[in-house]
Amino acid sequence: MELVSAWGLLIYLGCFAATLSSALASLVSAPKVFQALCNDKLYPYIEMFGKGYGKNNEPVRGYVLTFIIAMIFILVAELNAIAPLISNFFLAAYALINFSTFHASLAKPVGWRPTFKYYNMWLSLVGSILCVAVMFLISWVTALLTFAAILFLYMVVNYRKPDVNWGSSTQAQTYKNALTSVQQLNNVDEHVKNYRPQIMVLCGMPSSRPSLVDFAYLITKQLSLIVCGHIVKANLNIRQRAALREKAYSWLLIQKIKGFYCAVDDMNFEEGAKALLQAYGVGKLRPNILLMGFKENWATCESADREQYFNVLHKALDMHLSICILRVPGGLDFSKTITFGDETLSPSSNQSDLSKSKSISNLSIPRNQSYTKVSHGASMELMYQQRL
Fold this sequence. Notes:
By secondary structure, the protein is of the alpha/beta class. The chain has 12 helices and 7 strands. The chain has helices at 9-39, 60-76, 79-107, 121-138, 140-160, 169-185, 210-220, 238-254, 269-279, 303-318, 351-364, 371-387, and strands at 199-202, 226-232, 260-265, 289-293, 322-326, 339-340, 343-344. The strands form 2 sheets. Strands 3-2-1-4-5 form a 5-stranded parallel sheet, with helices on both faces. Strand 2, helix 8 and strand 3 (260-265) form a beta-alpha-beta unit. The termini are far apart.
């Protein structure tokens, strides 16, 4: 290059500038990225490098680690020996970045709005493919080792399942696929061979009447829709509604039941059941079976309650829904042994009891506390009580 250049000194100055900029980027940017990776606890035994110092939270330990790694490669004193490995690592990073931009454009999340006039998603895909091709052209052995290292790191993260949410394009793609599938389902003609029992289970909180949910699971075997409908007479605020939802889904997750939970508030039993039957669902993903528990106290309850129970049955028949009523010895309600916060909730709780429980739930769920932790603790308490 020096022989064909107009001024040979420019080649040395360019190499020096490129080396200096790459070194500064690696020594300054890499520790910052590594510190974020350590704070997210993606990999074990590296949390110590996530500690920062000073008002800018500088990763001093990361700087030291980067300096040691750089010195090890410098002391090798064989540029041709380490160049293929370093080049493959950089090319792998460029390939992943290009593929990430392509996938983001394919999923089209709201937050992805590239402003570059000549940006094209297919150009990103071509760039990613070219980076992989160059990796194998440089050294196919090193390329295979690089892909093995990337696959290993991915499998570790996938196995550990860290409690972090980056808002990845994979989530946007999942939503897009689900929406497309539901829209395509509307164009599919119904046939008896493809019939699926889609059940609306009026169980309240799923953990309150597990027999109803288990019976619905035996029918569907996780191959069709299960919706756990919860009717609350009192008015719920957004935090109480979120706490109920998290607790319900935590219980379903522990029981390995793939279902959905829907709560309606400020309604009596008849109004809430009618709202669930008429409004829940999208397209053809809506209940076609109503599953209820047998009203054990039909002979002693108030006539208004009995009338509401039968009105719900008549409404389901008017909507051409199948009806299934489950009766087990001893009844289905286990809510007396399940606590929410510090107070017991039961279907027969009156308005004052529900108002009291709402105030207790506000005290038992601080605003800075994770709902996931609250629901997990409640679910573990439920499992312990059921064992007793």
